[in-house]
TrEMBL record:
MF GO annotations: DNA-binding transcription factor activity; sequence-specific DNA binding
Keywords: DNA-binding, Repressor, Transcription, Transcription regulation
Gene3D superfamilies xrefs: Homeodomain-like (1.10.10.60)
Transmembrane segments: none
PANTHER family: HTH-TYPE TRANSCRIPTIONAL REGULATOR NIMR, TRANSCRIPTIONAL REGULATOR-RELATED
UniProt xrefs under Pfam families: AraC_binding, HTH_18
Residue ranges annotated for the HTH araC/xylS-type domain, each copy included: 173-254
Keyword Transferase on entry: no
Signal peptide: none
Protein name per the record: Helix-turn-helix transcriptional regulator
Organism expressing this protein natively: Phenylobacterium montanum
Length: 254
């Protein structure tokens, strides 16, 4: 297994390169970018990735698609072993040009764990090459998950959003934000949707969800997280969580 950065291997003429790394709890990888596209997977912890345009939380059941050239910062929650696949941009030209959290299928999980043990300059027509070719096929089948949070470009609204992300609450209202921005409700609603691509209620819920996932993954009680986020009851929070991710927290983090 290779424990290094992609820059040490970027020159190798292969469409896919696999790398594994280990990070201590709370480790921060400072803002950086890659020439290649990246699929980032952490089978033992939760990743939080941020760019100038948004934030993404990546639990153990998921991975993050990062297009080439995107400057990003990575934070770990708990001891983290990462598995990264780096793709030549031409080999994945049909993949999205924005970051996305993707579900990890059982097949892709097995392929990720196998790929980091293969030779860097694998023979394309052998089993090793076929594993990497199958990765390219399976990549396009990974389902998108609602674990991204777009951030607006407008400075004043961006400051409000970033403040909310630091202390999210399900009880913040449009009227309160309108008052802080000196905007009518109608103008604010239109402006917020234009800047984020989401309604205020959708964005607020997504921010609460992204705050909850690392805490629940670390073992905090659903009741504690739900009440901290301003939900009226753990049941109300669980309903929101299940609607977004398809399973209640107890099953999602099992």
């Amino acid at each position: 297994m290779r424990d290094n950065t992609i820059e040490a291997y970027d020159h190798i003429d292969r469409p896919v390169i696999a790398i594994g790394n280990e990070f201590a709890p709370g480790h921060v990888v400072l803002p950086h970018s890659h020439r290649r596209c990246q699929l980032l997977y952490g089978p033992t912890g939760v990743l939080t990735v941020a760019t100038d345009h948004g934030a993404w939380v990546v639990p153990r059941q998921s991975c993050l698609w990062l297009p080439s050239g995107v400057t990003h910062e990575v934070r770990s929650s708990g001891l983290l072993h990462t598995r990264s696949l780096f793709f030549e941009p031409a080999a994945v030209a049909d993949m999205p040009r924005q970051c996305q959290v993707l579900g990890v299928t059982p097949l892709m999980r097995s392929l990720l764990m196998e790929a980091i043990w293969l030779p860097l300059e694998y023979e394309r027509e052998t089993r090793d090459g076929l594993v990497m070719a199958l990765i390219l096929e399976e990549l396009r089948r990974l389902p998108v998950q609602p674990l991204s949070l777009p951030l607006p470009a407008a400075a004043t609204l961006s400051a409000l959003c970033r403040g909310f992300v630091a202390r999210p609450t399900a009880h913040d209202t449009i009227d309160a934000w309108c008052g802080q921005l000196g905007m009518s409700r109608r103008a604010f609603t239109r402006h917020f949707k234009l800047q984020t691509g989401m309604t205020f209620a959708e964005w607020r819920q997504r921010a609460c969800l992204l705050s909850a996932v690392p805490r629940l993954s670390d073992g905090e009680a659903v009741t504690t997280v739900a009440l901290d986020l301003g939900y009226d009851s753990p049941a109300a929070f669980t309903t929101m969580f299940k609607r977004a991710l398809g399973e209640p927290p107890s099953r999602y983090f099992a």
